[in-house]
Amino acid sequence: MKPFKLIYKLIKLKTFETRHLLLGLLLVVVLAGLGASACNKIIERRDVRPLVMRDVPAQRLAFRFEADTGLPEEIKTDDLNEKIPAIQTEFNTNRKDDALLRTVKSPDGQRALVLYGTAADPNEAFRIDLYSADGKFLRNLTPPELIAAFPETAGWSPDGSYITFIGHRSTQPSPSPTPLDDTPVSPSESPGPTAAPSVAPVFAPVAVFSTEQIYICNRDGYELKPLTSREGLIYFSYAWSPDNQSLAALACKEDEWYARAKESKLPAGRPRLISIEGKERLLDDQVTEALPVWSPDGSKVATAFDTDVGIYDAATDKPTQGRLPLREQLLAASRAYELRGAPPAGNAQPVSNEDPPSFNPIVRLEWPAAEKLYIKTAYFRLLRDGPVNTFQRWHLIILSPQAAILK
Predict the structure, then answer these.
(1) Which of the two ends of the chain, N or C, has the fewest CB atoms closer than 10 A to its terminal CB?
(2) pLDDT of amino acid 186
C-alpha cells in the first residue's frame, strides 16, 4: 500500500490514540526507507574515496615544501663524457681523423650510439653511428645531408625500441659516392683484380630542415624520419615518457634563441608533448629553462617558470594544469641559508629587504617517486670564459592528493 493511501485511511480511524500511534509508526518506517535509499545511492556512486596520485587532476594537487634537502641518492646523474673503452680503442686505432665525443649504451646493454665529430663538421655539430657494445661497427645512422646537434639529447627510448636525436640540415656539401669506371673494356684487355671503389652508404630519403628538429628511428637505425617538422622552431631538449609513447620537449623561435644568447642566458623554450606519431600539444605559452620531467607513472609532466612549478596532466582526454607558487618559500629558505653562512649569532647582521644572492630560479627538476618532486635552484650564465654555475641547491616538494568526488 502506498504511503499516502495508508495515511488517508489512518486519518479516518475513529480512535485518536490509535491514529496517533499508527501515524508515528508509519513515520519511522518512511524515514528509515528514505535513509536506506540515500545510503545505497552513496555506496553505489562511491562519491568520496581516497585517490591514488594518478587519479588526481594536476589542478587538485596539494604540496609541502622542504628547503635545502641536498642531492637525493635516488637521482641518477649521467656522465655526458662516457666512452665505452672498446669503442674508444676502435677510434684510436682505425678512426684517427674522427673525434669520439660520447657513447650512449642501449637499455639492454647490447648496442651503443656513437657520437663523433669530423674535420668537415662545424663546431658543436656531430654525426652518429651505431655500434655493438663490444666495439663492432654496425651502420651509419645520420645521412650526409643531416647533422646532429645537442649531444646530451641523443639517446634511446626507455625500452630500447627507438633512437632519437636532434638534427638539422648540414651546411657542408654532401660527399658523393666514388663513381664506377664505365669505360668499356675488351676481354683481351681486361685487367686483373683491383680493389673495389669506396662507395658511400645508401640512405633512404629523409626530410631535413634549417632549424633543429627531433628525429626518430628504430633500434636498428632504420626508418629514420623527423618527429617534428616546424621550420623556424628550434627544438633543443626533450625527455621520453616512461611508457615509450610520448616525449616532453622544449622549443623556441630563432630570434628568441639568439636574444638569450646575447644576454649569456640559458636557452628557454615552451614546453610541449609530442607523441611518437608526431602529434604535438603545447603545454604552456610561457618559456622555461627547465627541461620537463615525467611523473613515474607517466600521467603528469612538470616544469618550472622562474620560482613557480607547473604540473600538467598528460594521460587524459580532459587535461588540467596546476601552478605551485614557491617564491615566498624559496626566498625564506635563501635568507635562512645566508644566515647559516654568516658569522656567529652575536655578530650576525640583519638580513636586508633585497633578495639574497642565493635566491635564484629553478633550473632543473627530478621526479623519482609519485609524491616526491625535487627542484634545483642555481645561478647560471654562459660567459665567454666559460659557464658560471653557483648557488646550486636542491629542495623537495612533497605532493599529496586531495579528496575528490567521482561521478
Answers:
(1) C
(2) 38
Amino acid at position 102, single letter: R
Average pLDDT rounded to a whole number, residues 358-370: 96
Contact 224, 204 (CB under 8 A): yes
pLDDT band at 45 (very low <50, low <70, confident <90, very high): very low
Give the model confidence (pLDDT) of 71-99 as tens digits.
Answer: 877 787 766 778 999 999 999 999 999 99
In this prediction, residue 121 carries a pLDDT of 81
Q: What is the pLDDT of residues 259-297, one digit of tens each?
A: 999 999 999 999 999 999 999 999 999 999 999 999 999
Q: What percent of the chain has pLDDT over 70?
A: 75
CATH of domain 53-171+203-405: 2.120.10
User: What angle in degrees, to the nearest 10, is found between the helix axes of 3-11 and 16-45?
Assistant: 170
